[in-house]
Each structure stands twice: as structure tokens, then as C-alpha cells.
Amino acid sequence: MASQVSVSISTSSLLLLAFFLVTPRARSDLVRDTCKKCAEVDFNSCARSLESDPRSRGADLRGLGLVSFDLLRGQLASTGEYIRRIMSRKWDPYTRRCLSDCKEMYGDSSSRMEDVIPAYRAGRYADVQTWLSGVLTYEDTCESQFSERGKVSPLTKQNRDTLQLGTIALCIVDFCQDGIVTMDRNKVVVE
């Protein structure tokens, strides 16, 4: 009898251990497979970004969308704060105007993100795509206005990071719009 108890405890322990070892790997594969299928994003940056949030380990594709929105919101907020800090430096009038425009665009983008999550949860993917596309347009406008007069943008890294995170979010929303609920290297499952 004692040997049966120890065998069943050992079997239960092994099954529990196997579950915890396999589940994060499967979710990590979801992140990597999603990043591979997002053609417009850098794979390494995508995987690093999504995996930096612990919620991605337990997320399905829709959950990765929520993670990507939070990452983008954080990027928008930190860039807005960065712009506020560097505006106190001495800049020529044109660069100061560009920075002011960028500050306003990043503020508008942050406000738009407040509407994204409820719309996403309600399955209003077309609205989410429109809002995220607007965020990407603002980022592009912010960066390009500096070069119009031969200026070097002091926001190139921040704009590039925003573009990357926004593109990841938009890619995931596109998958959801297409009815994709999960994917792996060999197949895409559609609802």
C-alpha cells in the first residue's frame, strides 16, 4: 500500500511538472510564431518585446494583443515624457516647433489608446486598426518633419520603437480580424 501511494504521488508530481514545463514553451512558441508571421516587424525585437511582459507566457493570440497595447501605451507615455524633458534644452525655432508638434501627436496617440482596449475586447477590430494606423501615421509625421529642413531628429530611437510596437499591435489585430485564434509553425487555426 505504501508503495502505491508513493507511486501515485510520484506520477502526479511528474504530470504537474510536465504541465509547467510544457505550457510556457507552448506560449513562448506562440509569441515566436506570431512574430515570424508579422512580416513588417523585426523578429528579435518583436519576440523580446512581447516576452518582456510576463502575461505573454499565459496568453493566447488575443491576450498577446492586449500585451502589445500595453507595451505601446508605455512607449507612447515614456516618449511623451522624454519630449517634455528635452524641450527644456535650447533648440532652434524650427526644431522646437517640431518637438512641440511631436509632443501633441504623442499625447493624441496616448488618448487614442484609451479607446483601443475596449474596442478590441468588443471585437471592433476595424476601429482598432484605424486608431493604430493613426498612431503609426503620427510617428512617421513626427520623424519626417525634422528632415524636411535637414534637421536631425532627437526622437529617432523613440519613433522607431513606437513604430515597431505599433506594427506588432496592428499585426496581431489583423490576425484577429481574419479570425485567427492560434498559430504554430505548421498551421493557422481560424474561427
Briefly, what is this?
The protein has 191 residues and is mainly alpha-helical. 76% of the residues lie in helices and 4% in strands. It has a single domain, classed as Invertase/pectin methylesterase inhibitor family protein (Butyryl-CoA Dehydrogenase, subunit A, domain 3, Up-down Bundle), CATH 1.20.140.40.
Would you write up a description of this structure?
There is one protein chain. By secondary structure, the protein is mainly α. Helix content is 76%, strand content 4%. The protein has 6 helices and 2 strands, in the order ααααααββ. Mean pLDDT is 84; it is low at 5-27.
Shape descriptor reads elongated
CATH topology name: Butyryl-CoA Dehydrogenase, subunit A, domain 3
User: How many structural domains in the coordinates?
Assistant: 1
Assigned CATH architecture: Up-down Bundle
What is the alpha-carbon Rg in Å? 21 Å
Task: Report the strand count.
Answer: 2
Mean pLDDT: 84
Q: Record the strand order, biggest sheet.
A: 1-2
CATH class: Mainly Alpha
What is the string of SSEs from the N terminus onward?
HHHHHHEE
Helix content: over 70%
Largest sheet: 2 strands, antiparallel
DSSP summary: helix tally: 6
Q: Which runs of at least 5 residues are low in confidence (pLDDT < 50)? A: 5-27
Strand content: under 5%
Distance between the termini: 49 Å
CATH homologous group name:
Invertase/pectin methylesterase inhibitor family protein
- Which class do the helix and strand fractions yield? mainly alpha
